[in-house]
Amino acid sequence: MIIELSDPADPRVSDYTHLTDVQLRRVREPAEGMYIAESSRVLRRALDAGHRPRSFFLAPKWLDDLSDVLAAHPDVPAFIGAPGVLEEITGFHLHRGAMAAMERPAPVSVESLLDSARRIAVLEDIVDHTNLGAIFRSAAALEVDAVLVSPRCGDPLYRRSIRVSMGTVFQIPWARLDAWPAGISLLRQHGFTTAALALTENSLTLDQLAERRVEKLALVLGTEGEGLGPQTLAAADCTVKIPMRPGVDSLNVAAASAVAFWACRPRT
Question: Which domains does the chain have, with CATH numbers?
Fold first, then answer.
């Protein structure tokens, strides 16, 4: 159902208004049960994951590219308009040409993910959505079975996180913990060894951890700058570090996650 826009104040496109207002989106999208999938590749991945579209929002030149998607959802509004009109609605130029407002899937229970996983990532209070999306992309590529996020962690379905992940947030199952670091006890009940990435005097190297061939491993990554909290470090089964050249103390958390996921991937 194609609808041509001429008025930037059209109330039918309220899902797309002022997408650059970060604080508003963080509160509004979860509260309204929606998220924004940006770019044709990302929205296709969302649809392939079984997520339901509320509407599509695109420049006219993208109609042909998404003709199969629109044909498969004939009752879903597809809003089109001149670039200037679309930019006035969203607050930025649509370089990627197309968006979709999607219904958020129902939350997944932590326990359901732990039952079948061998490798999980636990993200403590990571609030930078660029880092969050990059971690999900690495997790999806490097044999991590699931991601758990702490109560204060950013939203994996925030627009920037989805975009940076290239839509892999839809491919890897994730859930939000009710409590952290108390949730470590739940991981332990499901047979996981928790390895916290931190530079401490007794930290194992990634190679030493990999040599242990742990059957079920949870890699815990901390927030940007401050790293993991002292209660988390005390509760974890071990700490692990990535050895560095002299003069460099750490990697960005997203880069560190990729290194750790690769080094600790399951060995057959």
Answer: 2-103 (3.30.1330.30), 110-263 (3.40.1280.10)
